[in-house]
Amino acid sequence: MNTLLMKRQSRVRSIGVTLLLAASVLASSLLSINATAAVEKIPRLANGKPDFSGIWQTTSAAEYDLEPHSNRKDAPPGAGIVEGNYIPYLPAALEQKKKNFEARATDDPKVKGWTLGVPRGIYYPEPFQIFQRASDLNIVFQFGHTVRTIHTNGTDHPKEENINDWWLGDSRAHWEKDTLVVDVKDFNDKTWLDGAGNYHSDEFHVVEHWKFLDANTVEYKATLEDPRVYSRPWNISVILYRHREKNFQLIEDYRFTLDYDQYYPPKPDK
Questions:
Q1: In angstroms, rounded to a whole number, what is the distance separating the alpha carbons of residues 21 and 260?
Q2: DSSP 3-state assignment of 256?
Q3: Mean pLDDT, the chain, as a whole number?
Q4: Could you tell me if 152 and 179 are in contact, meaning their C-beta atoms sit under 8 angstroms apart?
Q5: pLDDT tens-digit series, residues 201-237
Q6: What is the pLDDT, as a whole number, of residue 48?
């Protein structure tokens, strides 16, 4: 009797294990199918490359401070977007960053209405629009209506004798499967990375990775390095969401012209 009972129990356990294995395989298959479907459904150009055209915006609080921070009178709290939480400043550069923070109300280039720069324009809390062709992507930022061009036609950065220092750097990209990898260099030192005084020099170098998570969500990652400011390269990551509201569009946000509004349109002489 005991032997028969043991055989029945063993058979039940065997059936249970088989069912668990089958459920695990099914779940894995469904996840794989869903992931494949998401990749297949992303928008693409005629040449098969992912098409990032559209209006995008992040919901992160990175603009107020890339690092984790509590609330301030001029900023909400945020978890930060830096891998490892903190930017690896060189000692002298960290002191400069602290000075920038104290003077942020007047010294932040954004307050002056200047170009936000790279990568700040990506996580600034205003939308930007991408127009993509096979040879390039053009990013139009609502803030200041700055236009950034990312070349995807296989061309390289300008040779050293022709180098200029640009507000947005020079962007040259290539594809690694469905990920757009952008190398950005030749910056000036006039932009900040956020409203907390995090900054860079004209030796700044950024490598971006743009990748669809689904048709309306993009993962943006970047590696930042600057031998005059940071002790090593460091990484950030944000999620970008496509605006799908009816009639949504960019609206002019020219801050540097506000001081001249009183003069325009010209008023007739009395």
A1: 71
A2: coil
A3: 88
A4: no
A5: 999 999 999 999 999 999 999 999 999 999 999 999 9
A6: 96
159 Cβ neighbours under 8 A, 6+ residues apart? none
Neighbours of 232 (CB within 10 A): 8
CB 175 within 8 A of CB 181: yes
What are the phi and psi torsion angles at 68 (to 5°)? -60, 140
Q: Which residue is it, tokens 């991408």? A: 130
Contact 109, 190 (CB under 8 A): yes
pLDDT of 254 over the 70 cut: yes
Tokens found for residue 200: 């860079």
- Of 208, 150, 151, 152, the closest CA to residue 175 belongs to 152
Domain boundaries, the chain: 54-257
Helix then strand then coil, in percent of the chain rounded to 5, is 25, 30, 45
Give the contacts of 5 (CB within 8 A, at least 6 positions apart): none
User: What pLDDT does residue 142 have?
Assistant: 96
- Checking if the pLDDT of 265 tops 90, the result is no
Residue found under tokens 């950034």: 148
Q: Residue 240 burial by CB count (10 A; 0-12/13-18/19+): exposed, middle or buried?
A: buried
- Whether pTM exceeds 0.85: no
* Overall average pLDDT of the 235-264 stretch: 88
- As a whole number of angstroms, the distance between CA 199 and CA 96 comes to 9
Separation CA 110–CA 62 (nearest Å): 14
Answer whether 136's CB lies under 8 Å from 143's CB.
Answer: no
Compute the Cα dihedral for 96, 75, 83, 143 and give only its sign. negative
- From its phi and psi, is residue 85 left (phi > 0), alpha (psi between -120 and 50) or beta? left
Q: Which amino acid does the sequence have at 1?
A: M
Question: So what's the pLDDT on residue 33?
Answer: 46
Q: Any idea which residue has 């107020």 for tokens?
A: 64
